Amino acid sequence: xxxxxxxxxxxxxxxxxxxxxxxxxxxxxxxxxxxxxxxxxxxxxxxxxxxxxxxxxxxxxxxxxxxxxxxxxxxxxxxxxxxxxxxxxxxxxxxxxxxxxxxxxxxxxxxxxxxxxxxxxxxxxxxxxxxxxxxxxxxxxxxxxxxxxxxxxxxxxxxxxxxxxxxxxxxxxxxxxxxxxxxxxxxxxxxxxxxxxxxxxxxxxxxxxxxxxxxxxxxxxxxxxxxxxxxxxxxxxxxxxxxxxxxxxxxxxxxxxxxxxxxxxxxxxxxxxxxxxxxxxxxxxxxxxxxxxxxxxxxxxxxxxxxxxxxxxxxxxxxxxxxxxxxxxxxxxxxxxxxxxxxxxx
Length: 346
Prior knowledge:
Number of strands: 17
Number of helices: 8
Order of helices and strands: EHEHEHEEEHEEHEHHEEEEEEHEE
Low-confidence stretches: 339-346
Distance between the termini: 38 Å
Shape: globular
């Protein structure tokens, strides 16, 4: 039975340190409108979407740093960003968006949420686990800094897949009829990761073992950051950017195939402040690892495709065969989704 839906990545081009939140939000609203005009039902925005990628800068003044964070438990209630969620509800489009989160207790996390237009609320939150970079800045004043470990704590919510209601017509619900399985017939099973998480197969497999059908991934990836990468061979800026783009495609395509799922990656791209290169490459990848849609440049752009979740079944049933007693069951999970631990059973 076909389970089709239209999905999109909303790539955002350069956002400068001097860019106002209001101007960035206007661009996000324009992208959402464009996606809606093409029939999108789910739109994925990048990591830390509401501001420039501030972890490349060293901030001493806490009050200045805090301006880059969303404060409190409910991001949809924050005045600066609430219009995005209001507009998503008006358009009837689900969105996933990344932002810097400051909890009521003062903790900082690199966070992404999933907002359901049908339910008019955030239905899941993920906090980035694999934080790259350094805590202390490089001494070289020409270095591209990556200070996520200074500003964020490792995520504490794990990789938990969830079902998103209202995207697929006539989706079966758990317990709808006695003896009826929802496998391959229910609401889409979705997982979220952020940027560097995509480079770790463990992140993907945690989702894959829960039957994930779509992985959402917002990212900010430097096209030039030799102090961070390390290399035995010198590269030009052009070569470095191509290498970064290659590795981005590699992990999205290979892991989509190995877990037989679709993936949607959404970039913050372009040249921030006229000197910090971020790659594009926002894309939608199918369960066979093929790119079905990809950004053409590094500016603001909607990347859209119609996908059929039925395509996930071939790999899950015939090739990948993830569901077996090699893995232990986790103690807690959405009751409609099988959940497994990445440890071999004794």
